[in-house]
């Protein structure tokens, strides 16, 4: 059974977990389980000009820390805007995590308008992410912004 984006937003909004880190772990697990084309779901937290991987579901990655200026993840922070790359193999800024990854969606998580982290989603399908995915993940980023802000301080 496919759960609608609206229902998933309600479910994420109702997550009441003791710590910010536990909440992000549950968030990544829930989003990954309910969106089959989301093969890797992670949350990076911005700390001292680096993106630190706080939580993820999917294959392990060597990119647990990304300096600002490197990769598509960094681009989303610098531009404070969504990065939706339909074909990672055609973008020289892509930091390869898995040979299976074909597309990537990176959405900044903001506090008071400034990025404090991001949601990073990879798909093994090319052109996997639509404007609807962008809107959905943007809404999710608002729901987790307090937890990400706590961990970024």
From TrEMBL:
Residues 61-147 form the GAF domain. InterPro entries: GAF, GAF-like_dom_sf. Gene3D superfamilies: 3.30.450.40. This is GAF sensor protein. The lineage of its organism: Archaea, Methanobacteriati, Thermoplasmatota, Thermoplasmata, Thermoplasmatales.
